[in-house]
């Protein structure tokens, strides 16, 4: 906080010098900015000129610190330096100003009142004392904030029991209430036609429960809305509710949640404008939904688009529509669709964008604005938000009939409709919804905007919640983006973002605009090369604003990415895309703008607020991108790269070509359950596998086995269970594996329990019984520095980064082996160097040396990120091969090397705490409270693998960490560093020696 306070001092001095003096109006902005900066750290907001209604009249306080639910946490009032501060405080309090948590200040003195009495007074120039006052202010919890927190905590603790009681009531109703069961079955049939055949009775029951639990919340925020009386879907579900949930049953069950509902009503009373209500409701919804149903929150991606981004997209579309189609968005016959509307943010801002154009707005709202949503609660909130906003603008209530309750990705009915066919594919939950879907599908829709669900792959497979497959859209992706691309991991191409882009591109027809805020990896990830190729064929103009924020990077790159505009609620980088389809134009122009590095999220949102696409375009802020032959838009590699020998490629791997150095390559093992199948202790690993096998076998016999999810499931293991594949513990499958650089662990090598073993049975045999040498390298689109490491045993996929492996030999099942370096490569080397004595093992060593050459890594850094390495011919082949052999001996045989002779100092300690901390400045390593290793040579830290030195990998991997898997945490959390201390010290000595030796050899290569 001291940094923020000193920034306040500097701003105050600037204002005094520029604006002059003692006047409150001139100087208070500095204090307001101070509060805003501290508030942001506490996830709070400062609102200036805050209105407060009192019995004695309306007050306007200089500032209020509020949260996203608009609960006030504190107040601030500025006075002139020339005023008598104490007299002014007395005067304000007499007028009814709050004294529960308020700062009065005059730039000289700050006074803090809490609970109607002064608790702190300090000269503002005393930074330490001033910091204490501010800390007291922000740490204080007002009664209404505390009451809401307590009510919320009680709600979240009571919610599971209430939900379970509702589930039991529904189960009884299905069995004992024929009238309810009949209505529920009809409702289910309609849901299956509208949303998809994968909808079950459980889903319908879930919708009903959500309706019951949130009804009072909606009514509290929008007490005057006609929504629950008139909306066709709310009425239908409400009618279904009446068949089983009424009277005393309803009262007794919901009374447990009444404290929360009361707190919501009280908090909602302070929301006045539609925007305040929307913000309030979104926050409650996100909080409620994630706690109530994390399974669906994970699946649907419950994250909302910042308003600044929404307005930027809308204004951008308005300009592009004028530029290309000579129309404003509000003009007739320019229909607009948000295909994944969530809580209606885009449509709400669209209506506000048209404020003041009453007649056109009435027409547009009734006929030409459309939105789809598939989550019942989101649908409800979207209706309320949109209709409330329309009322605020027009002073008229009108149901928004452009909103459909439908799964957009399944709704491909527009194709039959536009061809003149009859669209019976999708029914509806009600006749009204059916008519809405039909009406939308009959319209030509030239503008599609929104924020597709962020969740490409669920975080937790044990939710059994994998995102659905969409047959027709997925086939279109296969025929376009995948067909034209080179991606090996094609699963990524079925990302939900990609599906919505594909759907929207098809929905546009001959001309139009698609504008999404989405994943920035489309811009530069190699896996999306097919996507990039297709969009340049289907669209004539593309505008991209790269907002960065990719949290899946690390080190300096992560810092440069800055904050995520979604307040770090998602981990992917973010970009705003405008795709324009205009048949009057030829080719495709790609305009690209990227925000500065290191910007925090709030500055990125400010940038969006202060800029708009038209201004940026007309002032030349965009760069023009020319894709290369590999469909790369950014980071296009060095041209002479293609003259070198490819180290590997999939055509050689499949036998369609011989033109690569290695025939076979493989990823490291991707287990999907590292905590279950790796361990430093062979005995502990054996215990885990026995337990895992036991649960798996019991699940085979009973798919509803109560402890089924005590182990980690994935799609492959589920498939094996469905096929009734029996498993037993096999001791010979306990092998050593290299888990991270220079870190060996015991590993249970089993294709059924390892997720993906790729080619490793062809590299080391079924139970890893064959010897082999392997060069491992960073895989495609890595974010860290390029890495290479030779090994002799099975590696984890994360040994390096997305580790790819190039073995010396390939083994057949009978144990016979062949060399993995191709005859084509051998001939290339012999011909170039005019030396028939070159052998494949020499090439293996030569390649390893080249991959360590700093000049090679630097020159071809971009190329190495895009594809497998290519190998140049350097002068003096055998010298390079010798360097490579020496490096390989160091790295493969690191456990046999004489440890580096650092100095060990032991000092007894009563409470010995594990440290495992590097101090590079003082050339030492702290092992624990008792032991230090001194005289660590500076060279040792220079041997980097990714963002860590080899020594730091050892320190990191041997730290005590809480397991993430709940069963491992409960039953198998046995690792204690003390058991391995001497082993780790010995390993650090060896890795230190390896590091010094490696750096020395690399310097020799460099010179």
From TrEMBL:
Its EC number is 2.1.1.72. Pfam families: ISP_coupler (PF22240), N6_Mtase (PF02384), Type_ISP_C (PF18135). It comes from Thioflexithrix psekupsensis. It is an enzyme of class 2 (transferase). Keywords: Methyltransferase, Restriction system, Transferase. Residues 280-472 form the DNA methylase adenine-specific domain. GO terms for molecular function: DNA binding; N-methyltransferase activity; site-specific DNA-methyltransferase (adenine-specific) activity. It catalyses: a 2'-deoxyadenosine in DNA + S-adenosyl-L-methionine = an N(6)-methyl-2'-deoxyadenosine in DNA + S-adenosyl-L-homocysteine + H(+). Residues 661-987 form the Type ISP restriction-modification enzyme LLaBIII C-terminal specificity domain. This is site-specific DNA-methyltransferase (adenine-specific). InterPro entries: DNA_methylase_A-5, DNA_methylase_N6_adenine_CS, ISP_coupler, N4_N6_ade-DNA_methylase, SAM-dependent_MTases_sf, Type_ISP_LLaBIII_C. Belongs to the N(4)/N(6)-methyltransferase family. It comes from the Bacteria. The keyword Cytoplasm does not apply. One of its GO terms (biological process) is DNA restriction-modification system. Residues 160-271 form the Type ISP restriction-modification enzyme coupler domain.
